[in-house]
Structures are given as structure tokens and as C-alpha cells.
Amino acid sequence: MQQLPPDARVLLICHVNPDGDALGSMLGFGLGLRRLGVRRMQATFPGPPEVPEPLKGLPGLDLLVPATEAYSDPDLVVCFDAASESRLGDLVDRLESAGTALVLDHHASNTGFGRVNLVDPHAAATSVVAEELLARLDVPLDAGIAECLYVALSTDTGSFRFEATTPAVHQLAARLLATGIRPGDISRRVFDTRPFGAVKLFGEVLGRARLEPAAAAGHGLVWTYATLDDLARHGQRPSVLEALIDSVRCTAEADVSCVVKQTAAGEWAVSMRSKGAVDVSRVAVALGGGGHRFAAGFTGRGTADEVVDRIRAELDGALTGTARG
Q: 10 Å Cβ neighbour count for 202?
């Protein structure tokens, strides 16, 4: 990237419905490229150009443009936190029109769709891969870059609670904190603040949660769903539901947790989590998505019950050796 011509157009893309790791890694890397002198640069993601409320304080948001305004034939595309081309939606054509397509990711299920793939399935977050590349490019960390990468790292490790939290993760967090960012302020904004309407929405959706102890070959499944009507009734945007899986996954009687979120008529974004007995990435990949052993997702179609029926069947199949995927 140091050899890019001064007028090169760089397009940064993260996956649809971006979470903290996708958006934070992309913006942090973009701010790093800006320090290298890259000036013709855009960042984007497929779908409505709405940044989730907890992430609206991130530095680098000025890089964002709607997908409809993104460069059609950039010299370089860099993709973040997307395990497959399908996660790029209508922006997938930029992979072919770009001079070079670079993929930064940490999902074990990554399909290797880029021309250059920097994929580390052992990394706790895509931000780890992004920070390592910035270091190789001799980009020094500043507070803006660090805040983006810290949000990415802390969200994908569940505030440093998940299994991927290694000594190296804490060492990276220490380097980021050394720039002077304020972890208390960041945590309150990202994890501990939501509208009262979202609180009421969570209560309603959690009230319809279902526990199936015999599912997943006896390891247990707990799941719930949220519709567009639920969101409208409580005046909330879809992004508020991203945190709902954390309230569902704490169920003691189930290894697998699942939240099915309606995104359009007959279409659902599915988030899955495992406590370790079940590899939910196998289920997600079989159903057209991807992820990790402990966290995965896919897009389902049909009714909520039909989507969960397919999840249930794949869970049982994956554990008995009869999975269809």
C-alpha cells in the first residue's frame, strides 16, 4: 500500500449490518491509511447507511459513504470481517472491478474470496489483523485509530470475557489504552447505554424465548425472535437487537442460543452462540453463513419457525454425523 500512486482510489468495505469489529476495524485502518497519505478513500457497507447508535461516536465516520456512492472501479478494495462474498451484498462486484482486493478477517469459515487474504482464525477479532498490518506499514497508533480498534476488540471479545481473550489480546488492549483513550467512557457508550424503548423491546422479545433442552443432541437450545413490527411498535432501529443475544446466551440449560431478527418480509438475520459443546459455525456454514465455533450467523428465509426448524435439524445433524450441509 505504500506503493499506491498518489491519486489511487481506495475503497474500504465491511459486512452488512456492521458490528463493532467490522466498523471499528475498517475505520481504524482507514485512519491509518490517512496517516500514510492516502487521500482518495471511502468506507462503506451494504444496505441502509445507518451506523448503530452505540458506534456513532467512533472516530473516522467522515470516511463513510452510502453504498450507492462508493467508487465503482477502485484501485484497491480492502474488506473487513467478512467471511464470504455474500456478506458484501451489492458491493461484491467491487471485488472484480478493483485493481486489487485485500481481505482482512479472523473467521475460520472464510472462503478465501480475495486476491490477497490476510485471514487469521486464531485472532480474537479482525481488529487484531488490522493492527498487525498497520504495524507492518509503520503506522503509529494515535488516539483515533486506537479508539476504533479498541471498540472492535472489546466488542468481539465480549468485553474481554470470551474464550478468545488471550494474553496477546490484553497486550494489544494495553497498547491501545496507552494512547490516552478512555475505556470507561467507551464502555458506557458501547455497552451500557440504550433507549428506554429498546429496554421495553428486549423485555417483550425475551418474554417469548423458548427453551428446548433436548435439542442439539441433548445439549439444549434457547431461542427467540424479533419482527419488524416489534421494532416499529417500540420505535427502534434493527441495530439495537445486536446486543440481545447476550441476554439469551446466559441460559444455564442450553449450550446453544439463537436470536432470529426480521430484516424484510420472509428474511431473517440469525445470530448463534455456543458455550463450547457445539460448533455453531458448522450450522451457519451449512445454512449459507459463517463464523466461529462459539459465534456464527446466517441469513434465513421463510417464517421464524421455519428458520428455527432448519437450525434445529442442522444442530442435530452436526452432532450425529448426518448434517445435510
A: 21
